[in-house]
Amino acid sequence: MNIGDVASRSGLPPKTIRYYEDIGLVKPVRSTNGYRRFTDADVHKLVFLARARTLGFSIEDCRTLLGLYEDQSRESAHVKAVAEEHLHAIEQKIEQLQAMHSTLSGLVEACHGDSRPDCPILTDLSTVK
Amino acid sequence: MNIGDVASRSGLPPKTIRYYEDIGLVKPVRSTNGYRRFTDADVHKLVFLARARTLGFSIEDCRTLLGLYEDQSRESAHVKAVAEEHLHAIEQKIEQLQAMHSTLSGLVEACHGDSRPDCPILTDLSTVK
DNA sequence: ATAGTGCTTCCAGCTACTGGAAGCTCAAGG
DNA sequence: CCTTGAGCTTCCAGTAGCTGGAAGCACTAT
Predict the structure, then answer these.
(1) CB B90 within 8 A of CB A97
(2) Which of B57, B76, B92, B66 is nearest to A100 (CA)?
(3) Structural domain boundaries in chain B
(4) Do the chains contact at A114 and B90, CB–CB below 8 Å?
(5) B3 CB inside 7 Å of strand D
(6) Which of A112, B23, B79, B117 is most buried, by CB atoms within 10 Å?
(7) Are A124 and B51 in contact (CB < 8 Å)?
(8) Which nucleotides in chain C have some atom under 7 angstroms from a protein Cβ?
(9) Which residues are CB-contacts of B24 (< 8 A; sequence separation ≥ 6)?
């Protein structure tokens, strides 16, 4: 299978698939014409990667998870630990964003937003906290 | 004032302040010894930048906001528009992260997390959605 | 034969810094 | 006066995860 087919099956752009080869996540063989030739197993891996990335796992996490995926003697505890750590990171990001949101929405509401120059948003930004 | 003092007053690392000079956000003059010399106005700008960055504004947004901050004839509507757009982006990010969180926490709960290899997390990841 | 699409590689750029090396400047202590 | 250490300078490279573009070969259809 050529890269274009794999792209449409996995939902990943060809560029990204090449990049994943560069960093060693997939290792397609080459046809005599130099084209990458992907096996079904390669496609599975790429689907796996696409899904893991939409769940926000880093590339390094993906590498780990892919290793576990292919290791028949893995322990599910290992997978769970990786996922839990990521979950924790997501929670922290959400909290950060919610803090930003709360502050900023307060400021936006306080700003009359007309042609006058005075603005509580700018006042806040220029204030040392 | 030297960069070290400015760093402690603004909370920004010296490296970051130099970077902000590189990209034209501040323009400190130079002393005869080659050191950057910051005025109070420069410090105000850097405090402004530090605060805007903690609220998640991009550097380009910061550049715009800084321009408005220094423009006495600005319209608060302009500031508000920039802030609202950013607020919207924050909301979208939060939604994305919450979707990830919801999926992932379901999977983590479903995984028994022991020494056995079978794992619903991996099963999900390897499934085309 | 030719046109058009798909594939290849390589290089550069994106965001917002951060680390490190090499070297100059300055203030304090002996 | 000399040395030591901290602070400053510049420059280069690397981080994450792609993405865009150029130049050029391969393949298919007409």
Answers:
(1) yes
(2) B57
(3) 1-73, 75-129
(4) no
(5) yes
(6) B79
(7) yes
(8) 6-9, 15-19, 25-26
(9) B63
**8 Å CB contact between B103 and A56:** no
Task: Kindly report the backbone phi and psi dihedral angles of residue B4, in degrees, each rounded to the nearest multiple of 5, phi listed first.
Answer: -60, -45
Residues of B in contact with A101 (CB under 8 A): 87, 90-91, 94
CA-nearest residue of chain A to B78? Answer: A113
Q: How many CA atoms lie within 13 A of A11 on its CB side?
A: 13
Say if domain A1-74 classifies as CATH 3.30.450.20. no
Per-position pLDDT tens, chain A of length 129: 999 999 999 999 999 999 999 999 999 999 999 999 999 999 999 999 999 999 999 999 999 999 999 999 999 999 999 999 999 999 999 999 999 999 999 999 999 999 999 999 999 999 876
In angstroms, the CA B107 to CA A56 distance is 14
**Domain B1-73 carries which CATH code?**
1.10.1660.10
Between the CA atoms of B61, B66, B69 and B74, what dihedral angle is there, to the nearest 10 degrees? -60
CA B117, C1' C17: Å apart? 41
Interface with B, mutate which of A42, A82, A119 (most B CBs under 10 A): A119
A77–B115 CB contact, under 8 Å? yes
